[in-house]
User: Fold Xylose transport system permease protein XylH from Streptacidiphilus cavernicola.
Amino acid sequence: MSNNIDAPAPAVEQAIDPRLLVREQGFSGYISEFKRKIRGGELGSLPVIIGLIVIWAAFAASNGNFLSASNFEYIAYYMVGIGTLSIGLVFVLLLGEIDLSVGSVSGLSAAIFAVLSVTHGVNLWLATIAALATGAVIGAIHGFVFAKIGVPAFVVTLAGFLGWNGLMLWLLGDTGTINLPDTGLIHLFGGNSFFLNGDIAGAYILAGVGVAALLFSSLGEQGRRRSAKVPFRPTSEIVLRTVVLAIAAFGSAYVLNLHKGVPNNLVFFLAALIICDFVLRRTSYGRKIFAVGGNIEASRRAGINVAAIRISVYAISGFFAALGGLVISATISSANQGGSDPNNLMMAIAAAVIGGTSLFGGRGKVWSALLGMLVIESINAGLFMLGEAQSVQYMITGGVLLAAVVVDSLSRRTQKSSGRA
Assistant:
């Protein structure tokens, strides 16, 4: 007979929430948590931030004017149009899908706005609503065909890319261009429009509002989590995050004020990012998007209406494609055939991926659109200063995109090996 009957069972190691360790260990806890995330493949925005610093340093060494206020103003203004398209694409990529129609939808929406407001004299705001609604409806149609009929998203949106581009060309007519007056929405998003008319106080007001919003929202979340007796961020971490944001925000305001101030289109872009970030991180709808992107079958079993989530996400993508089209048309003061330039689509996708949104779904932030566009537009501006051809820009951007995907793939592999994916 075996004598192991009374042998004590091996002790089971109890899992400890790493956020509790951070709170208990203080600063050393943050270091341990950072190392844990790196080992587990949770790189976040770290690679793109390092890459952006390297890009800025390299171009600054080649041309001293790269770090000038006027150049940063240029980058801030021209990244908004395609960056707006990229916001919608982040939602789609979180599902692990793709939307190839955003370039054509943006061009079509700009054409609808131009035809209604210029050719037919419709009120500018009504024309704007019509253009944005068109983008959202088109996106919902794509989502319906994909989610309900079962046609792959790649095929559906590729068909949309071709079809909506043709409709745009038909609307613009033989000339292919409709010039837009510098009034209303076009002026609001145009190059001569700055927050509070470029008053130096405007940039600092925006910076102060952003910092205060982070501080109060973080303290509010801390209070709610403390009341619920679940792990929460310690006050020291909240203060550190606030200080870092304050340095970045007020530093950016100072630099932009050295030239003309904060472009209005950048203000709306940042507002859109904040709203979308809130939706994704603080609402049940946002959590459902991450759940569907992470595991469709598990989401279905959890009671999530997967088809509804897919349709709504493509509607959001269409809406931001339309909004981006209006911003791009305001940038060039016209709606023309270039509005559906395939390069806009490619750059919008590249921005989301370079900024840290995974192509495999379930992981990313809307701030990827901002970070990715900063990288792409910094490359554009730097190469323009050096007198390089656009072909060089495409090759370098392609290399950066490939590097981002490789990092994402390696990160996922590391997470799987550590049991986190």
Notes: Residues 10-21 have pLDDT under 50 and may be disordered.
